[in-house]
Each structure stands twice: as structure tokens, then as C-alpha cells.
Amino acid sequence: MDPALYSGRFQQISSKNVLVIDSDVVFGQAFKSALERVHFSVNLQQDADSALQLLHHHNYDLIILDSFWDPTSVEELVASIRNRCSAPIIVYATAGIGEIANKCRKAGAAAYLVKNSKDIPSLLVKIIALTSTQVEHRV
């Protein structure tokens, strides 16, 4: 299903200021566009260091990041983000949920989701469902 079809259904969603951290340029841009279509304000960063620097200067309601970061482990990145802000963190990955998901949750992630680059709408619906139950968090 095309995320553009969601626009009318999610008019009531208040715009959340979201930081997406994903080194995959193609997926990152497509995911950013899908989030923007349902009224999220999105800042896309393709490297962890730039994203961490942004957290010193900007407040985000939600942080979404990919699980693949070399040489830093995703749980170390989640812990670094958690030390800088209190916004919910959602980690997504192409691999199944397992030990890394547990480590991410222990480091401070609110959720760990499986991403399918060919099914962004399903990921989007999961994120909307998770964020609709979250209380707004600010630094």
C-alpha cells in the first residue's frame, strides 16, 4: 500500500520531530518521505557521529535508527543517544529479533522492529502505533 494513501487517515497525528539515522541512502530517503506524508517532521542523518552532534542542539520527540553501525555496536549507539536525550528510541533491522533486540532494550530502546525495504508502509504503521501510545518526551 502506498504511504500517500495514509495522508487523510492520519491528519490528527500531531507533527512529531523525528531523527532518523540510517546509512542506507535509498531506504533512508524513502522512509523519510513516508514519515513526512503522515505529518512527521524528519531529520535524516546517515552517520552516527553527525546524529549525536545534532542531539546537542535539537530536541526530538522520537529517534529511529538502523541496527547496523560499524565499528560501533547498535547497543552502544542506543546508550549514547539515551545519555543525550529522553526521547523514545526505535531500532529497526533487516535481521530477526533476538539477542541484539534485548541488548538494545537494555541500553534504552523502546522498541526493536524488523524492516523490509520493500514494505515501508508496514514499518510506518508499526511506528505510528508505537508513537500514538507514547507520551511526548523532550530534553
TrEMBL record:
InterPro entries: Bact_response_regulator, CheY-like_superfamily, Sig_transdc_resp-reg_receiver. It holds the Pfam family Response_reg. Gene3D superfamilies: 3.40.50.2300. The keyword Zinc-finger does not apply. Residues 17-130 form the Response regulatory domain. Keywords: Phosphoprotein. Signal peptide: none annotated. The modification 4-aspartylphosphate is found at D66. One of its GO terms (biological process) is phosphorelay signal transduction system. This is Response regulator receiver domain-containing protein. It comes from Chitinophaga dinghuensis. The lineage of its organism: Bacteria, Pseudomonadati, Bacteroidota, Chitinophagia, Chitinophagales.
